[in-house]
Model the fold of this input.
Amino acid sequence: MNKNFKTILAVGLTAVLVACGSNKKVVEQQPAEGSEAEPQVARESIDPQRRANRNVAFDQYFNEIKPDAAPAKPDDKGFIRRWTIIEPINKPNSGNTVFTDSYILAELTKEYFPGQFTADINALPKAGDKVIVESEAPRAGGRGGFGGGRPGAGAQAAPAAPATMKDTLEWHSVDSKLFNIKLIRFAQGTSNGQKRYGLIFNAFTVINCDQDIPNVRLAAGSNASSIWWVNGEQVLKLQADRRMVADDGMSKRITLKKGKNIVRGAVINGPGMSDMCVRFYNEDGTILKNYTITNK
Done:
């Protein structure tokens, strides 16, 4: 190998090493998409807002009212904002894919406490009433205590029966400040932030009519699944994982009778948001508004 060739080779190798060093620095400063460093930056930029959302005060969404509060009216778009809601029942599902038709029917029609589905106007609970409910205990580990990890490779262990707990739950009568009832905020506000996901909500309201109103339809939206009753009759079911959309489902034609009518809903959520909205439509497709709303 002659002297000139050795010199050229040395210069070329030096250039390659410098270039590699330069590229390495660029990679360190700008992590590749999907690397561990990039999600960390993203989390740091959005966590403050998530924390702020979790700490929003209950009274930014609701006004609690007394059992003898004056009647309310539907809002200008016909949505019902007055509801009496019991603090949520634990149902710590690790995902929303379980919300099949049969699962929703079984879980949302299950009686957790006496009088849960009463159609007797004189037997309705009042704000401040309490019941003791046996429900599933939060699971260790996983997002929000949903648990779940699966057994190690090759393990064939049968799933253990869920642990249960007794929970004292209180009824609250509220006027929502939004057309959609933010159930996740209700859960946080009535549990000192301890409940947020994996819950079953039960709520009712009383519709007061001056005369029979035939052939109306109940229109509801919920996140996630829900079942709705009017005067004890199941009239609408919204199954599967879904976002809340106004008028997402409509009942068959029903009659709101003269006097008091009980509208009841049950909503279930997994690891995600939860809210609901309800209004009635007349037979001709216009929004029904000529009634009052009470909590008794």
Residues 1-27 form one domain. Residues 15 and 234 are 78 Å apart (CA to CA). The chain has two domains: 1-27, 48-138+163-294. Helices lie at 3-29, 37-54, 101-108, 183-190.
